[in-house]
Amino acid sequence: MKTSDFDYDLPEELIAQEPAAERDGCRLLVMDRATGALEDRVFRDIAEYLRPGDLLVANETRVMPARLLGAKRGTGGAAEVFLLRQHGTPTENRSALWEVLVRPGKRLKPGTGAVVDFTDAEGNVALSAEIVDWLPDAQKGERLARLTTPLPSLDEALHAVGHTPLPPYIKDYAGDEELYQTVYSRRESSAAAPTAGLHFTPELIEHLREQGVRWETVELEVGLDTFRIVDEDDPEKHVIHTEFYTVPERTVAAISETRERGGRVVAVGTTSVRSLESAWDAEAGAVTPREREATSLYLLPGSEFHVVDALVTNFHVPRSTLMMLVSAFSTREHIMAAYQHAIAERYRMLSFGDAMFIC
């Protein structure tokens, strides 16, 4: 197995630069997991492929206003701080340590007293970030920054100055940032959206419930490495990123009941897959509840899936761990054939693009 086995030619013009006019009006490529047979549909048609007693499990995390654009204190030079995750436990509302990426990296080094200020719509400094240390084993120059604000809370400050980050391949999007959030998102804890869920509307979810399809959630804090391609020739040498996930007791109970009644567990997105499969307890032979535990589960062809029976997903970046995950869920040959079909049929690709249902 080589990383190049999961590569494909992605025409730049097929990378969706904005969401579909209607969330559930995008295209849906349905693929039989076992045979590779394909059908071209519209996303809301997924109701025809779900049966009473099936369980949909979605990642309810919400994208943080993690992109901060400001100026370096003292010089006024433009600077960007990108929030990855909070570091440790905050001791007060107006100050906390965060793991961050910065630009320009050469001018924002720990130990130099570098501080970046961020202003609100009125031009007042609402948030400051002092670069205080390097992160151990940092692969992309990640740093530790102390965020402080004169406002009542950091949460208020972040919403005053922060922007919703978009993937690097989406250029100059000026539309509603809320369209990069799922309609069921809750706690802000991710640096990127669980994009397979973007296609669901409240009306579609309600229609599925009326049809007898259950809906439950997990939470996985999506990091930027979700967009990272694998550089090693041998994918097994790749060190996958660590993310934090939660599988609540109600979801565990719903999975057990679904299994007892002969229904399928349908994951909405690869982050839901990683959460559910990470929560599998081999000794118990079942999924067990988890509360913000770390996972670095890496699913490659040959991996076993103990929980997930079907998958709603988007089209993924070439040579990514997500290409390997969907190939593991079906076969590499089926997935590559499906992608070639999607490209030939001019499907819209990646985060704002169309969807697949692998069942």
From TrEMBL:
One of its GO terms (cellular component) is cytoplasm. Its EC number is 2.4.99.17. Pathway: tRNA modification; tRNA-queuosine biosynthesis. It catalyses: 7-aminomethyl-7-carbaguanosine(34) in tRNA + S-adenosyl-L-methionine = epoxyqueuosine(34) in tRNA + adenine + L-methionine + 2 H(+). It comes from the Bacteria. Keywords: Cytoplasm, Queuosine biosynthesis, S-adenosyl-L-methionine, Transferase. Pfam families: Queuosine_synth. It is found in: Cytoplasm. InterPro entries: QueA, QueA_dom1, QueA_dom2, QueA_sf. GO terms for molecular function: S-adenosylmethionine:tRNA ribosyltransferase-isomerase activity. It is an enzyme of class 2 (transferase). One of its GO terms (biological process) is tRNA queuosine(34) biosynthetic process. Its main location: cytoplasm. Belongs to the QueA family. NCBIfam families: PRK00147.1, queA. Monomer. Transfers and isomerizes the ribose moiety from AdoMet to the 7-aminomethyl group of 7-deazaguanine (preQ1-tRNA) to give epoxyqueuosine (oQ-tRNA). This is S-adenosylmethionine:tRNA ribosyltransferase-isomerase. It comes from Gordonibacter pamelaeae. The gene is queA.
